[in-house]
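Q: Please design a sequence for this.
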């Protein structure tokens, strides 16, 4: 209980929700260890990090510096390269605006994979519409793996900025950044790596410091929404296209401290957690495949995020399945920004997936608080929902 009379005990715990949450690519619950720190920053250590005239401001400044160190440790970079943002979308916009620069004699040549997040695609397209960039697309194969000739081709034709995500937010495919980053640099181009889904789940130490613009989001790693980071050794706020941005605004110290704690936890526990989650994911996959003979597993099964299972039930409308599960198991038909949009996923199209598999595509995302019994119950519920929809489709008891 604090002076304000508000107690953390009044906050709902992740377990309070009755439905099983398997949509961790969309967002994650805040870890209670992170929430405690955020809460404390809001009510106790609430100083303004820009007011260094007293101990409150000093404490806040020290907290921001500590969080930068934690973020940098997770991705193998320098704390001075960490710039906090409101999330990945803002970090992506800042990075591309910085790559364009305050003035340009000729448009920025951007090459991006066809499976980047919509935030990257929209920013690149907008820059092109404004005459600030020309966009080239890098192809992927049927497992969403990068087609290496397509990247080489773009680099040989001349590229200033390459955008390759660390791992895909729909099908989970992980990209070989240890090879891609030096290749891009050998061609004198810069690289933007959207690590929103991969941070804490794959190791960054081998190449993290070499990435020109690395993108992170708090709410995908058990920190609150509204906090993220651009990690960049070349970023300079005064050299951004447009009216410029300032990092002199009052920092979101609670969010920043939460992001720092989330990164600390990921660094110390991420490896074991990833193993545990991969085991559960594999059991989920095996049990679903055993009972749904026509099930197809999408993405690169040899190299995918541990918490990702992306499947297709051919010719079975995914929105009907998700709807049946609505109050029982939270899974999705695609990326959060696509959900409910009823348009097909640009990722699945780029993979050349057949229409019948796109129609039945389901994204399942496990997380830190997913339990063995969640998996057991989710299997039963998903199987029942799929059978229900299939039956309904042959004109039986569809309501
Ligand atoms: N990039 C990827 C790969 C994502 O999955 C997301 C969110 O789903 C974003 C960027 C946007 O992140 P934010 O919600 O922090 O703006």
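A: Design:
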């Amino acid at each position: 209980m604090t002076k304000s009379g508000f107690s953390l005990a009044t906050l709902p715990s992740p377990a309070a929700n009755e439905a099983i949450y398997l949509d961790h690519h969309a967002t994650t619950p805040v870890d209670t260890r992170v929430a405690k720190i955020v809460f404390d920053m809001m009510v106790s250590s609430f100083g303004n990090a820009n007011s260094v005239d007293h101990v409150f401001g000093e404490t806040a400044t020290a907290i921001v510096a500590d969080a930068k160190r934690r973020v940098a440790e997770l991705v193998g970079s320098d704390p001075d390269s960490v710039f906090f943002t409101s999330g990945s979308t803002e970090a992506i916009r800042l990075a591309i605006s910085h790559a364009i620069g305050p003035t340009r004699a000729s448009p920025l040549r951007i090459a991006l994979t066809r499976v980047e997040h919509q935030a990257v695609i929209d920013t690149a397209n907008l820059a092109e519409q404004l005459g600030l960039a020309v966009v080239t697309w890098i192809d992927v194969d049927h497992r969403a793996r990068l087609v290496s000739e397509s990247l080489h081709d773009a680099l040989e034709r001349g590229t200033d900025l390459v955008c390759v995500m660390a791992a895909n937010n729909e099908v989970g495919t992980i990209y070989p950044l240890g090879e891609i980053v030096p290749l891009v640099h050998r061609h004198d181009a810069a690289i933007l790596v959207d690590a929103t889904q991969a941070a804490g789940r794959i190791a960054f130490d081998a190449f993290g410091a070499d990435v020109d613009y690395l993108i992170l989001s708090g709410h995908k790693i058990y920190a609150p929404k509204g906090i993220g980071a651009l990690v960049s050794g070349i970023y300079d706020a005064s050299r951004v296209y447009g009216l410029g941005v300032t990092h002199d605004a009052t920092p979101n110290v609670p969010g920043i401290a939460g992001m720092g704690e989330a990164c600390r936890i990921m660094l110390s526990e991420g490896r074991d957690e990833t193993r545990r989650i991969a085991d559960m994911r594999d059991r989920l996959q095996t049990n679903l495949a055993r009972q749904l003979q026509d099930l197809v597993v999408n993405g690169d099964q040899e190299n995918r995020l541990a918490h990702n299972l992306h499947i297709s039930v051919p010719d079975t409308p995914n929105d009907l399945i998700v709807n049946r599960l609505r109050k029982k198991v939270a899974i999705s038909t695609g990326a959060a920004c696509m959900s409910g949009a009823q348009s097909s996923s640009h990722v699945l199209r780029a993979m050349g997936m057949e229409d019948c598999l796109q129609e039945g595509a389901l994204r399942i995302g496990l997380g830190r608080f997913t339990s063995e019994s969640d998996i057991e119950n989710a299997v039963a519920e998903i199987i029942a929902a799929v059978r229900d929809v299939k039956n309904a489709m042959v004109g039986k008891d569809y309501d």
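Q: Thanks. Anything notable?
A: The radius of gyration is 22 Å. The longest helix spans residues 253-291.
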